[in-house]
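Many introductory courses stop at the sequence. We go one step further.
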Amino acid sequence: MVNCFYQELPVHQRGDAVSSMVYEANARVRDPVYGCVGAISSLQQQIDGLQTQLALAQAEVVHLRVYSNKGSAGGSGGTCPFR
């Protein structure tokens, strides 16, 4: 079955197909229940967490810029390190 699938692929895609099958087989050995889906889920959770951290950092930058602009408009002479 795998051999038939392999032979139907264009030659330039066969190496990637074999690599993918090996990865999936190894993932199934490491995690018999979820296999590579478990790895994908874990990576997606990491992405979600990092996107949250990025959004918080971007909001903080905006806050600091607004705060800095208010300070310089008030004549305090403060400079914004983000400009």
